[in-house]
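Morning. Coffee machine broken again, so started the prediction first thing and wrote up yesterday's gels while waiting. Chain of 316 residues, entered below exactly as on the submission form.
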Amino acid sequence: MKSTYYTLRHLALILVLIVAIGCSDKNEEIIAPNGGDITLENPNDTGDNTDNDEVYADIDFSNWKVTLPIDENNNGKPDEYQPASLKNFGYQTLEPVMPFMYDDTDDSSLIFYTYPESSTTNSSYSRTELRELINPSNSKENWTLLEGGEMTGSLKVKEVSDNNSSNYDYHRVIVMQIHGIISEEDMDTYGFSSNNGPPLIKIYWVDGYVWCHKKSLVNENTSGNDLIQPYSSSNNLWTDDKDNLGYVGYDSFNFRITASDAKIEVQLNNNTPVVYQDTSLDKWQYENYFKAGNYLITTDTNAFSYVKYYNLNITH
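Came back before lunch.
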């Protein structure tokens, strides 16, 4: 009788082990009949928890929309996606966005890819570019220089097509901007049909060098309503002051733009900041928003550019 009991007990233990091994997909702990712990190993588990280990670029999309170089809905304008669909990694599952803005988890970067195709009303060039929305539901709400703001980012130009149609070796790329916009109040006051303002600051990558273009009045005596006109490329009130900030090639670099009352400061890496503080900034009547990404300055066939961002932050 006793031997029969032990035989049944051993058979029950074996049966428990067989069932547990056959049904288990992952490592799990099973309590044996004698009270001991048995750990079952999943032979398909390599120990690489890749999904949990992936680190993405440090970019919060809560206040950014993205403009793409395509017009899939055929409305005559580049397609755009709002913060609500981009944040919380929503961009990773948006099929139209995925070819143009996607993760590289090898170096925790976000890649912006673009080529010449669809462009905005006020430009001939295409972009995969983020546009700041301080109010995600209202692009007409922006900020003044008096209110100020700062944008910082770590980035690199990964690859750019050869330029065979000018003196540059490669096509130029704008990677950061402060863009002007006419306020809602001034739109109502003057009845303008366009709220487009001049780009106050444009940060270019040009054959490996980082350049800053800053808008200044052609005539500093300009005053009154002339200071708040809608901007187009044919506008002759403004010109660009251009400063070469240094060479980065295809290496990563840090960049900062700080805006305050009648003052702009730009800084490449730990270099001495370049400070603009002049009459043109004192007379700047436009509101503003930040932009960042990959704005390719060419319409050449087969042109392209890739820009990587490791982090991007804005404060006000």
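The helical segments are 2-23, 50-53, 83-86, 184-190, 279-282. Going to sketch it on the whiteboard this afternoon.
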